[in-house]
Amino acid sequence: MGLEIARPQTSRLAPHRRYFPVPHGETSQTPGEERFSGLYAGEPETCRRSLRRFLPIAAHFGALVTAFYVYNLEGRAFQLLALASLFALPIHYMLPLAWKKPFFIVVSIAGLVAVFDIAASAVVVGVAVVLIGICYLPIRWHARVGLITAVMVALSFARVGRLAPNVSETAWAVLGSMFMFRMIVYLYELKHAKQRESLADTLSYFFLLPNFAFIHFPVVDYRTLQRGYFANDVHATQQTGLRMLFRGTVQLLVYRFIYHDVLIAPADVTNFATLLLFLVSNYLLYLHVSGQFHLACGMLHIFGFSLPETHHRYLLATSFTDYWRRINIYWKDFMVRVVFNPVAFRLKRRPQWVALSAATCAVFVTTWVLHAYQSFWLRGSWGFSWHDTLFWGILGVLVLINVQRDANTPRRRTLGAKGDDVPTPHALALRVLKTTGTFFTIALLWSLWTSASVSSWLAMIRRAF
Amino acid sequence: MSKSAGRVAIQPLLGTLVLLACAIVPFSVASWPARLQATLRNDAPNARDYAQIEHNYYERILDDPHPHGAQSAAFNPGALATAVDDIREYVLKPSLHTMHKGATWTTNARGMRDRTYNEIPPANMLRVALVGDSIASSWGVNDGEGFEPRLENAWRMEILNFAVPGHSPGQRWEHFSRVGWEMRPDVVIVESTLADIGWDERRLRVLLPKGHGLDAPVFAETLRKLAVDPTKLSPAELKTKLHPLRTELLAGIYRQIVSDCHSRGVPVVWLLLPRVGKPVDPETHATLTNLAKSAGFDRLVDVSGIFDGQSASKLAIAPDDFHPNALGHAQLTVAIDAQLSDFMSSLTVRSRPVKWEDPSSPHHAPANFPSGSTQAGVNVR
Question: Does ipTM top 0.85?
Fold first, then answer.
């Protein structure tokens, strides 16, 4: 449907359905058993401890943390939290499952205090208590949403210094990062939840340790996070985390190389070759974001949270819908759940193209507004501008065209023999062409988005030709 | 559970070890692997952003109540600063009492982040002038929590804080020359950090096209070496011409500072401070120290290593900020006191000149204070 029409590049299951709930009572150990077999009573098999398998993981994580320090990666806050994770990991690993999540919350709050000062941490925890407390009030969902909205509006006045001038910038940025999107997801879940969410689940969702190093944080889905918790063998999850951490590290180092040695200033664009160099290097600066997201999710894996990847080879996208699906997958999932699906569902009796168009437009308008909303919470200013509007507008139109085209193109069946998947030279050439075209179009749009103004961007383009 | 579940992921493990090896292996200095290694370990902004940050960081934060607003906007004086049409670009607003970034921020009627002082110095108390940047101005901490008010309290002296956040060394001295001499200090402390090399070069790339800087005494000597009219150069040409002069610019400024002070018989101290979480590059450190030595400062105080080995998160005002917090300032106070108190206690209140008549031309010393009559009443090391 809509943005999901084309062949997905990753698992077709919705993110919150990719993992099964933690099975209970699968332990192979009986209470009376004397020798510790790696499981406490009542724990699932996925939790089974094995030093033989854990020690290499801890060692690899230690090597990665060393690399973070040696390369001075992502600032002191991240290095401190990575080190804290390294020390907390064995304790978390050995604790009974019921204690793991509370321990993770304690480590996260300790990380918050260690990274920021006591005053900022106190403000963050205080506001968090209020917001989360409202979510637990025994009143109707709409009333809770109304209260949360009222508090958020009051906080936004405080954010610009009208209500609480003594609260530091840092506290606002952290609060915004924790609640601006995740509260929307959480409230959405509360609306559909069949039972009350446990406090440990809720706190572990908002107090995510790596969030305090990366204020710009992926919009983690609540249900995905909870269902992924010890959903797979813990060692497999941790290995996935190590892969993510390694990938993030490499991406951040590549980013540094581009940033320091390749990137040129828009003012240095004087001909077509320098324009190309600028477009490519400027676009590749996004490796900073994808690298950070990989590190953040990798750290969560270390503590048993199995999550889908945040980015999937977005530089190789073959169309604009494909690009939208591959880059910042969590954002795409967030938009699909809270905007696309509700709009498309409301218009299900209309012709398909109408529903798809309306839902896609709604997604891009919301994305545009929410990026400004994010800028407000993280930086204190809304950041609306013409070039920003143009970027989201043009990208939205391109995706809209692609969505309609995909909807009218019969899907090729993929259940044939394996040999059917080997591309012909013609198909391969077409794919290369599509990938190149998508890459440079997005790079051009990206340069518009990051430019100082539309006029300066046009001046740069004129200098190139 | 699949059989591969939990197996050691060999590729990322090997990759991590390779990354570690690449960071640790010593390459010959000029080789491309060494340059790549330096790039990959470099978490600082690139040259272009650095130039913008040094200026825009303070512009954005000093100017409007919405910090981090329009990054590329022209300077817009606002809450803490006011624009001036000379090489200083802006100065602190006078008589301000406000909250900034969660800290109290108060300036006196002279635009100093300090308490009020009489123009006439007290008869039996030494008057010290502090010239510096954001760290000296106690950026990010409450009034009274910086090292300057703490030292003032400890030394029982008047320390007048002329520091302006975001000013380059040349701008700092120009500012002091215009407003500081009239307060007749007995000694001047010039604060510096490792960020000072190149700072004036970056400011001059902005100032020279606007017609500022060529006639400024702090820059004049060095800029004469350009041998061209910098206002007629393109930004790229100006950058090419100025870049090789970055160290020389600072050397010229230091010489000017020492000359100005000594011509008034005022001893001058060079104080090198650390930035929290910023490693001290030995090469830059040596260059800066040598410049100060050869300029002839009366005392060199280097406390740049005092934060080494300590958790930066405990000492900085924010996780990704290099400005020390109140604890950091307390440590700075102790370290400066340990290295400088003997020098300060050896100073006596000298016979002060009459009020400085022409602060905009500080290089014409008054007749009763001839050049060369340095260290009057002062035992200089």
Answer: no
